[in-house]
Amino acid sequence: MNPSAPAQTPLEGFGNDPWWLIGGKVLVVFAFLVVTVLMTMWIERRVIGRMQLRVGPNRAGPFGLLQGLADGVKLALKEDIVPRQVDKVVFVLAPVMAAVPAFVSFAIIPFGPQVSIFGHETALQLTDLPVAVLLVLAMSSMGIYGVVLAGWSSMSPYSLLGGLRSSAQMISYEIAMGLSFVAVFMFAGSMSTSEIVAAQQDKWFVILLLPSFIVYVITMMGESNRIPFDLPEGEGELVGGFHTEYSSLKFAMFFLAEYINLTTLSALATTLFLGGWRAPFPISTVWAGANSGWWPVLWFLIKIFLFIFFFIWLRGTLPRVRYDQLMKLGWKVLMPFSLGWILLVATIRALRNDGYDMRQIVIYAAVAAAVVLVATVIWEMVRGGEDRKEVAPGAAEAGGRPDPAAGGFPVPPLDAPHYHGRAREPAGASTFPTPPEEVTRGTH
């Protein structure tokens, strides 16, 4: 341990602060999340506008800085429309169930080390638990109930499909996300966020556990329901998804929950893999006081906004994936890979504890992982070719016309003689009356 490192607050020290300090921390966390949402909205619009060679918001305030605040005021003043057939109790509670867990999740994120506030020594963290990381997973699972119930209570097929998609996506990616944390718990020896940051004093876990970091980055995109994984909304096929029937403040709460989850996921990635509030490598070695006082808050914010920029970058460059590709990535790629990586990490640590040479162990493990990866890619390529061969014979009927039901989901035949009780018009026939000749003559 470095003797010049700042003191860490043990778990027993949390909860012993005076009431005014705890209340102040709650207000600071709440204000930080709200301001971060407004800043993220402005940054996202400006950055994507620059990427797509167009002008972003530049009217509300200098450089458009007040555009997010203007949007919030607009949503608050809009008419709150509630459809007639909805389940009103669930319809009203669903946005609350989506927004409240998003705020609670940030309570266990450490902003910095122990500092002095009005003469009282306290950690820059609202609270901590022996299973603090599991609290984030629990809150994200609770937040998905708000999305599912919003789709169910809206009495709309588009909303219902959006809610079902969201629940399936959460199950697929939250399991892989939880598995990516296991290796971190093994190295840190704890699930407490403050102790995980303390365990990265010498080397960040992004270097030691790079595969876990990659899995987490992919799953955090799936958990945030943003492009390329924004299938619960799917404007092209579901109008707006689970919040199609929502307006005014209820829609604003879903909007707020999405951006707060974006901040929480970025802060959790910073805490687990990027050393938390610790300064980057060149700064921490040159400057002895970089990890003490209030300076760590600056490093923490820089890391968070770099992750948020990464989210924005992906939204501005990647298209939406298909739903079957989303499920395949979660169940057939991320979960098996995470399980294999956990077994490998556990084996390496057990062998190191028994006194084996770590260099040979790492080399053998890298060769074995490369062989498994290459074999998996070859197997997928072979399987993909076999699937195409199986679909090919039934892809066309006699006469060269494609069969729409071949190799996929059944669809209504295009040449059915009747459709909903009406005779089908022959090909090329128009259902609109032909305009008079004098009208057509006058249009030329």
TrEMBL record:
Keyword hit for Translocase: yes
Pfam entry (one): NADHdh
GO MF entries: NADH dehydrogenase activity; oxidoreductase activity, acting on NAD(P)H, quinone or similar compound as acceptor; quinone binding
Keywords, ordered alphabetically: Cell membrane, Membrane, NAD, Oxidoreductase, Quinone, Translocase, Transmembrane, Transmembrane helix, Ubiquinone
Region (Disordered): 390-444
Oligomeric and partner information: NDH-1 is composed of 14 different subunits. Subunits NuoA, H, J, K, L, M, N constitute the membrane sector of the complex.
Protein name, per record: NADH-quinone oxidoreductase subunit H
Originating organism: Actinomadura spongiicola
